[in-house]
Structure prediction request, 318 residues.
Amino acid sequence: MTFSRILGTGSYLPARVMTNADLESVVDTTDAWIRERTGIEKRHLVSEGETCCDLAEAASRRALEAAGLQPSDIDLIVVATTTPDQFFPSTACLLQQRLDIHGCPAFDLQAVCTGFVYAMDVADKYIRCGAAKRALIVGAETFSRLLDWSDRTTCVLFGDGAGAVVLGAADEPGIISSHIHADGAYKDLLQVPGGHGNGRPDEAYVEMRGNEVFRFAVTTLGRIVDETLEANGLSRSDIDWLIPHQANIRIIQAMARKVDLPMERVVVTVQDHGNTSSASIPLAFDVAIRDGRIKRGETLLMEAFGGGFTWGSVLIKY
Ligand code: COA
Prediction:
């Protein structure tokens, strides 16, 4: 049997930093409110002219270097993003051109904050069935461009960045299992209502009913943890690291309790990155690999929740 294994990771954050104190002069908010309700202290934002593909390229080159591979070794590119540079070509095709890769399939995948988990699920299946041997999976976002910077209930929450993983075919996992779900019945709770497709391009800003999203996220993520453990006959004590989507420290703490892990065993970057949507898990993953916390052979649980709603998990033997 063929499985997919993590060969390398990389990430990239734009240089510009916006602290909570900086936000106090943008909207009616305070550093104390943002820290207490979300755990966020600062976030990175793209500068004028900097694109989602720029972030994806930098993260991808670092992941390829960590994997000891050349771009020409890649035979599948999946970019999870909610903020593509253009309607088309896809950001994956733009990235493919930057990396001077030709011919392999390249496509974007849109599942908002669950995008990276969805992309891992898809790429793992390509590799398991033999359709790809070395896949580049990227989560990249310029979410700051989707924000209404006069809406204090949303603009304080998000940031920009990219993370990437190179997956390779292997005889043993790797990705043990992945689980993805969606329910469009909740579309109104977290959305960008406008778009060119519906003739409302002027309403292309994030709207959220934060309280309701919070409650649904905690319940749903709790269920996906149970589903993942049950599918593999594992118990909570088998998990070495939780790598959650970085939306809010209070949701992350609730998930740590659910998995019965101390916070030292949870990778937390929300204080430095804010919510970078599909980039948040690969960014956090790369940070914890590069600082030496996550080691080969350990069991990792990734979980995410996002607009749609979408939600999912990936269980990995690193
Ligand atoms: N600064 C100061 N006050 C703010 C504020 C801000 N940035 N944003 C909202 N407030 C105010 C509200 O207006 C409200 O005031 P009121 O009581 O006078 O009406 C008060 O703070 C409490 O608002 P509420 O929405 O109940 O706060 P909360 O504790 O639910 O926290 C979130 C708000 C958004 C941080 C929280 O609901 C959350 O994290 N939800 C999940 C969001 C998420 O993860 N989304 C992405 C999923 S991928």
Observations:
- The longest helix spans residues 210-231.
- The chain has two domains: 3-172, 176-317.
- The CA atoms of residues 171 and 210 lie 43 Å apart.
